[in-house]
Specification:
The complex is a heterodimer of chains A (238) and B (95). Chain A is built from six helices and two strands; from the N terminus they run E-E-H-H-H-H-H-H. With 238 residues, chain A is mainly α. Chain A has one domain. Chain B has 95 residues and is an all-alpha fold. Chain B contains five helices and no strands. Classes of the chains: A mainly alpha (238), B mainly alpha (95).
Chain lengths: 238, 95
């Protein structure tokens, strides 16, 4: 397993490398924009067709935000909905053989830093600067270093959890394909030398395992990332 | 290009052993998530109509508990595929 391939370099400021991660993120952006456009093309009062799916998704996100954060914080729902859709479609790109953008630590650290900034700014806006700083001294003033460390550990653990799950699934799938290729050339190559290059045993088993590693893990990790963002922001504002 | 010296062999061997030891961290999520699943099953048995809420809470708790196991996996992957210790060794040996 290697890092993402650098596809070309922008010759500004000493060469900004444009990697597979960036290209695949652009692809996910195009897909999401296309889905949003096709779902809202001819909007009617009574939805039919693609509008039902889009309305169901938006309604689901709003009800989840209301249930987790409370009725007065519905302003966060667009960010949560975007984050969930972006994370889900990024991780599901591995079903098509592309390298998922979330298998790169840069992507998840970026999202975790946005969440961190959101938590701090929401806390300061709701409680005022003095109230926010005093919150670090609760429940006991001598717990101040522990409170600061736990505040800084949140984005680290958010990003590493998401990255580790998706990248680990990618490594296991790659190892599985390598093993099945060796196995098929070992079993069949002895009496039919043409099968040395056709890995026939690679059909079937990886598809079954990818129901857990690709499909379930992607949906669960996107959901967890959004739930934890909502819980952190709600806790900082109360 | 690394020379195959004794120092290089020791660093590579220690990295491989370290990667294996890092995966012992997989015991923690196994026990914790099994406990969470047991409590979830008990709660569903006690109140079957709350099943979807209980399952969602259980999955949320299980995925958060998995994070320390993932930290161990990340250390093992770093040691196997992006080993920084070899670079430190080459710097120290002046290659």
């Amino acid at each position: 397993m290697n890092g993402p391939k650098i596809l070309f370099e922008i010759p500004l400021m000493g060469g900004i490398a444009v990697t597979e991660t960036v290209i695949n993120s652009w692809l996910v952006m195009v897909i999401l924009t296309l889905l949003a456009y096709l779902g809202t093309r001819r909007m009617e009062r009574v939805p039919r067709g693609a509008q039902v799916v889009v309305e169901g998704y938006v309604g689901g996100v709003y009800s989840l935000v209301e249930q987790t954060m409370g009725k007065d914080k519905l302003g966060f729902a667009p960010y949560i909905g975007t984050l969930f859709a972006f994370s889900l479609f990024s991780s599901l790109l591995s079903l098509f053989g592309l390298r998922p953008p979330t298998a790169d630590l840069n992507t998840t650290v970026g999202w975790a830093l946005i969440t961190f900034a959101l938590v701090q700014v929401s806390g300061v806006r709701r409680k005022g600067l003095k109230g926010y700083l005093k919150g670090f001294l609760e429940p006991l003033p001598m717990l101040l270093p522990l409170n600061i460390i736990s505040e800084l550990a949140n984005p680290v653990s958010l990003s590493f959890r998401h990255f580790g799950n998706i990248a680990g699934g990618m490594v296991i799938t790659m190892l599985l394909y390598g093993f099945l290729g060796w196995l098929s050339s070992f079993v069949f190559g002895s009496f039919l030398p043409i099968f040395n290059d056709i890995p026939i045993l690679q059909v079937g088993l990886p598809a079954v395992l990818s129901i857990y590693f690709d499909l379930f893990t992607s949906i669960l990790q996107a959901f967890i990332f959004c739930m934890l963002t909502m819980v952190f922001v709600a806790m900082a504002m109360d | 290009m690394e020379q195959f010296s004794m120092e290089f062999a020791i660093v590579i061997a220690a990295s491989a052993i370290g990667a294996g030891l890092a995966m012992i961290a997989g015991i923690g999520p196994g026990i914790g998530q099994g406990f969470a699943a047991g409590k979830g099953a008990e709660a569903v048995g006690r109140q079957p109509e709350a099943q979807s809420d209980i399952v969602r809470t259980m999955l949320l708790g299980a995925a958060v508990a998995e994070s320390t196991g993932i930290y161990g996996l990340v250390i093992a992957l770093i040691l196997l595929f992006a080993n920084p210790l070899v670079g430190i060794l080459q710097g120290a040996l002046g290659l």
